[in-house]
Amino acid sequence: MNALKERALKTKGLLVAASVLASGSVLAHPGHEQASSFMTGFAHPMGGLDHLLAMVAIGLWAASIGGRALWAIPAAFVVTMLLGGGLAVAGLNVPFVEQGILLSVIVLGALVLFAKRLPTAVCVMIAGGFALFHGAAHGMEMPLNANGLQYALGFALATASLHLVGLGLGQLMTKIGTSSFATRISGFVIATAGLLLAFV
């Protein structure tokens, strides 16, 4: 009888150990880790109103200027944002990150509101300067167990998608003939939201 009890206990122990090992191997599977890292990165810009507003504003601003700015401004933002993320992950300090992000929402909203047509090179520098803060924020908040490349790919793709939303809205407003008024209203809403976020 005692032998049967001992065998049953051993069997249960082996089953528990096998379950733990199996669940661990599933969680540690590279495909799952990469998918999780990518989705975490993709969700990060979408989950913050400040990030979301600034990135849509980039698209609206580029659409209002047109020409080379249509691709140059969003591209500069994404590339410099990745640089900022890399600096943060490497442990290099980017100062005034939160303030820089909030300032980007206000300034980009104002640029859309007042329809500022600056030289493309200046626009690229403005976009890149603000992107550094957004990228640093993404990098600082990357989970310790995340795959850095997949995480970066996720937030870069999300950012580009939000730029495309802004570009699409800008192009749509131009097509239906309400570009000037509707774009300015959009800029006003974004800049005002940035001011509110700064004081909330």
How would you characterize the overall build of this protein?
84% of the residues lie in helices and 0% in strands. It is built from eight helices and no strands. It has one domain (34-199). It has 200 residues and is mainly alpha-helical. The longest helix is centred in the last third of the chain and has 28 residues, at 148-175.
Q: How many domains make up the coordinates?
A: 1
Radius of gyration: 23 Å
Rounded mean pLDDT score: 85
Q: What kind of sheet is the major sheet?
A: none
Q: What is the CA-CA span between the terminal residues?
A: 70 Å
Helix content: over 70%
Give a nutshell description of this structure:
This protein has 200 residues and is an all-alpha fold. Helices cover 84% and strands 0% of the residues.
Q: SSE layout and pairings?
A:
Layout: H1 2-27, H2 30-47, H3 49-65, H4 69-89, H5 97-113, H6 120-140, H7 148-175, H8 179-199
Q: Keywords, please?
A:
200 residues, mainly alpha, 8 helices, disordered N terminus
